Amino acid sequence: MSQPLLQVEDITAGFGATTVLHGVSFTVPAGGIAGVFGLNGAGKSVTMKTLAGILPARSGRILLNGDDITKLSPEKRVARGMGHVPQGRQVFPQLTVEENLRLGAYTLRRRDKGRYAASLDSVYDRFPVLRQRRSQMAGTMSGGQQASLSVGRALINEPSLILIDEPSAGLSPVAQLELNEVLETVAETGVTMVLVEQNVAFGLSLVDTAHLMQTGVVVHSAPVAELDESTLATHLGIGKVLQAATGRALADRQSVPPQRSSSRAGRAS
Ligand SMILES: Nc1ncnc2c1ncn2[C@@H]1O[C@H](COP(=O)(O)OP(=O)(O)OP(=O)(O)O)[C@@H](O)[C@H]1O
Ligand SMILES: [Mg+2]
């Protein structure tokens, strides 16, 4: 089997005397979208922050393309091809769209100044709404547009892997559909994603593999094709109402043949 793009090995992390991650392990192959699901407070965002280098791992290892990046700074991880779209999107509301993208590209500009213009152009090609609104204050854009900006800001450094934390949060159903298309397009261009979602139905429509987290540990990993509804409900504490939506999303994914590249379906972790 070819080398995974990302290997997360028994990571522990926390704050002061509190340990939040108690040994998180999962593997992400190159290509496609890996999902991380779990209840509020399960440690999904802390996992993403540890992967991005914002929070140090206390033990365990993180390998990117086989290289140990556990001790690298966030900037060095970005330079190695890792992007992070934090929970809440964190765009700078008082800056324009283009200023937000320019700030996001500081690692790229330091590495190779000449690439910035081409990379900005390619982000604008992918998100025409950002080109159109390049001079608008980011804070005045709609939630869906800000979601595009936050993904565009990560893509501008030309990453091979992006970590996306709750991109659908607060979006209308229509904006969620648009976001779904955006993320599909990004995946089709060969960028691998780790997607954290509270909205399990939304997440299941996108991911190839699901990693289920409970209190700081990944308790179950499976390709979507092999997931069953009761496993999801048990690990995610999903009640009857939500279970119907989640079940439908799962059935949809399992009945429709994979649309992305042939590498999409059936990859276990
Ligand atoms: N800066 C911090 N200081 C102290 N505790 C924190 C900090 N950030 C997170 N925690 C705690 O770590 C645990 C996991 O938080 P985390 O943000 O990873 O949850 P989550 O799975 O992303 O939840 P949600 O779905 O609500 O975003 C929670 O108990 C939270 O209170
Ligand atoms: Mg979170």
Walk me through this protein's architecture.
- With 269 residues, the protein is α/β, with parallel strands linked by helices.
- It has a domain at 6-92 and 160-255: P-loop containing nucleotide triphosphate hydrolases (Rossmann fold).
- Helices cover 39% and strands 23% of the residues.
- It has helices at 44-52, 74-79, 97-104, 106-111, 115-126, 128-132, 143-155, 173-188, 200-204, 229-236, 240-255; strands spanning 6-15, 18-28, 33-38, 59-64, 67-68, 82-85, 161-165, 192-196, 209-214, 217-223.
- The strands form two sheets. The chain has a six-stranded mixed sheet with strand order 6-7-8-3-9-10, sandwiched between helices.
- A hairpin with a 2-residue loop joins strand 9 (209-214) and strand 10 (217-223).
- Helix 7 packs parallel to helix 8 (173-188).
- The longest helix has 16 residues, at 173-188.
- It is globular, with a radius of gyration of 18 Å.
- Magnesium ion binds next to helix 1.
* Count of helix runs: 11
The overall strand count is 10
CATH fold naming of the domain at 6-92 and 160-255: Rossmann fold
| Major beta-sheet overview | 6 strands, mixed
Overall helicity = 25-40%
Rg measurement, Å: 18 Å
Distinct ligand kinds = adenosine-5'-triphosphate, magnesium ion
Keywords, separated by commas or semicolons:
binds magnesium ion, binds adenosine-5'-triphosphate, 4-stranded antiparallel sheet, 6-stranded mixed sheet, single chain, Rossmann fold, 269 residues, disordered C terminus, 11 helices, alpha/beta, 10 strands
